[in-house]
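Appendix C: a fully annotated inverse folding record. The material below is reproduced so that readers can follow the format used throughout the book. The structure is listed first as tokens, followed by the designed sequence.
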């Protein structure tokens, strides 16, 4: 199996939680190239995260653990 075939066979969805817009956009652009559907959430409150996870039902959440914690 070639790398290209392997990428085509991947399916899944990712939720990116990132408060740095540049980093979020990089991830949002790269993941579809690897065969994943991606959504970006820039607000990281627990209520906002719960509200996004329900309807999206992502297979994976890429979480910036420091999101919303800038001082």
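Designed amino acids, in order:
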């Amino acid at each position: 199996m070639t790398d290209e075939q392997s990428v085509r066979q991947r399916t899944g969805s990712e939720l990116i939680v990132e408060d740095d817009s540049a980093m979020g956009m990089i991830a949002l652009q790269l993941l579809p190239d690897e065969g994943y559907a991606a959504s970006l959430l820039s607000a990281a409150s627990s209520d906002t995260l719960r509200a996004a996870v329900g309807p999206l039902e992502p297979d994976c959440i890429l979480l910036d653990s420091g999101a919303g914690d800038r001082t």
